[in-house]
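Continuing the batch. This is chain 6 of the set; chains 1 through 5 are on the previous pages. Same settings as before, nothing changed between runs. Recording input and output for traceability.
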Amino acid sequence: MISKNTIFGRVACFAISVALFASGAIAHEGHRTLGDSKISSSPKRGYIYSCQQTFNPNAPGAGNSGDWIDGDTVYPDRKPTVDGKVKWPDRDISINVRGDTRIIRANGLPKHKTGIYPIQQSDDAYAYDRNPNAIEEQSIVLKLPADPEEANNASCVPMGMIGFTVKGVALFNGLDAAGRDAPAYEIQDKWGGHPEAQGLYHFHHLAPGMKKGVDKRGHSKLIGYALDGFGIYGEYEKTKSNGKKKKIKNKHLDACHGHVGKVMWDGEIRKMYHYHMTYEYPFSIGCFRGKPVSASQN
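Output for chain 6:
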């Protein structure tokens, strides 16, 4: 027999949970502002300086959205994820420095599991996004500057790959094919990734499948490399005042979503330019601070 105290306790917990969910307190991201229409033709903080300026509103992609988008607010934890836990035993990635070049070779398969793609009709995600693409092994070769330098002028970011993570997954900008806020509309798996038309599994934002954690100084660890060679780190920065970590926001970064500071780089602490991933749009690289290389993908 369940006591009245137990019932009242459960009711109270449920009420608290509902209140927290409504306020966004439960979500690790909470809620954020939708990034639609934040495309610029020059570097601009909080925007994506996109090489592609014209988009087809009827481009293939997520067809419907649910209650996780309310006006111009996104509630990520209300959004469904793609079902499945697929293992990829043939995953492969190597990162080596030879002279002044950092060479990344990978097959594009992640070290973590993924959802089942194409999205199955039995999946609740299918009602919103009918991604027909299967995850395919790739042949990726990136030759990046090992000691990148800032260019005189920032440059635009392309659609497709803009960086590559140390866990073997490509990073795309924050736009979908229709020029919308990709993480808001497209349905990803629980690790935050999905495949595009050529089968390349990729992230658009600070995803659960990325390398997490901070170093002993309180700064986020290296997540990956941008196509201009600069490092991409997580959402934490060491504060100057007390040495503790603080969560980075757009206001702390420049138009390209980075800044100059001390980071762990090839085994030593160096003061240099670097990018941060954040939970605010545009999530990652808004423009290239250095000179990007072309991504080789076969």
